[in-house]
Design a protein that fits this description.
The protein has 265 residues and is mostly helical. Among the domains are: 33-123; 146-232, no CATH class. The protein is built from eight helices and four strands. It has helices spanning 33-69, 76-82, 85-144, 148-156, 169-182, 192-208, 219-232, 247-264; strands at 213-214, 217-218, 241-242, 245-246. The strands form two sheets. A two-stranded antiparallel ribbon has the order 1-2. A two-stranded antiparallel sheet has the order 3-4. α1 packs antiparallel against α3 (85-144). The chain is rod-shaped and about 110 Å long. Residues 47-74, 110-139 form a coiled coil. InterPro entries: Caprin, Caprin-1_dimer. Belongs to the caprin family. Residues 1-36 are annotated as: Disordered.
């Protein structure tokens, strides 16, 4: 992080079918969507079987009725069965309506599951984006803390600007050590993935603000220090510090030179 240091700083949405394996999305009543769709599949299976059986039964009764209409003689069992023709017809119609209603309900559940999956995906993406933004902010802060002018202002307060001290010397020292951990210089004797696996763990612990010892302090204390600087709005100012010189001061100096030149002529 100090200016003398080198090295670069790096640091399913498919809609399930009815009867799919129970998933993680939960709908009303605390039941998993997978359990609901599986239950719906079982209900539809029962209704489908009932409809098929009644269709077969009505088919036989239709044959009996056709034979009777042709004047063929029926046995007593066939005649008794024909007495229930209207009852079977009504039951079959009711079962078909029930089947249609449950199919519509199953489609509604699938739509609800799809929306829940999409909503959870968006929430997950939003959380990941927020986490990535925090990583970028921390990297930016650690990089800028390598500039002498920035360190001085954060330690002593911006001259004439009324900016209070944001970091102590000891905090800057520990942040320097953190900088080495999360953005180590490339070691050619170590595999890149192995080297940055450890660095990424340090960064993860920092993001979570773990109360775990590191660099003579804790990740929590380091994160508190960095958050303090971020929340101060110090880096949101219009001026930027480059090469230890305040850009705002350079602009003011240029204005003064222009005025002097105008008076000379």
């Amino acid at each position: 992080m100090p200016a003398a240091m080198n090295g670069n700083r790096t640091v399913q949405s498919a809609s399930p079918d009815v009867g799919s394996t129970p998933g993680q999305i939960t709908l009303g009543g605390g039941q998993s969507s997978g359990a609901q769709t599986e239950a719906m599949k079982q209900v539809l299976g029962v209704i489908d079987k009932k409809v098929r059986n009644m269709e077969k039964k009505k088919g036989k009764l239709d044959d009996y009725q056709a034979k009777k209409n042709k004047g063929e003689r029926l046995n007593q069992d066939q005649l008794d069965a024909l007495t229930k023709y209207q009852e079977v017809t009504n039951n079959l119609e009711f079962a078909r309506e029930l089947q249609k209603s449950f199919l519509a309900l199953g489609q509604d559940i699938q739509k609800a599951v799809k929306k829940a999956v999409r909503r959870e995906q968006l929430q997950r993406e939003e959380a990941e984006q927020k986490r990535l933004k925090t990583v970028l902010e921390l990297q930016f802060l650690l990089d800028r803390l390598g500039e002498d002018s920035v360190r001085q202002e954060l330690r002593q307060g911006a001259a004439g600007g009324g900016t209070p001290s944001l970091l102590t010397d000891s905090e800057l020292t520990t942040l320097d050590e953190l900088y080495k951990l999360v953005g180590p210089e490339r070691d050619q004797n170590t595999r890149l993935s192995d080297q940055y696996e450890e660095a990424s763990q340090h960064l993860m612990d920092l993001l979570e603000g773990k109360d775990k010892a590191v660099a003579g302090t804790t990740y929590k204390a380091l994160k508190d220090s960095l958050d303090r600087v971020l929340l101060s709005g110090y880096f949101d100012k219009a001026q930027s510090h480059q090469n230890g010189v305040c850009e705002e001061a350079v602009v003011e100096s240029a204005k003064e030179q222009t005025v002097d030149q105008g008076q000379h002529f």
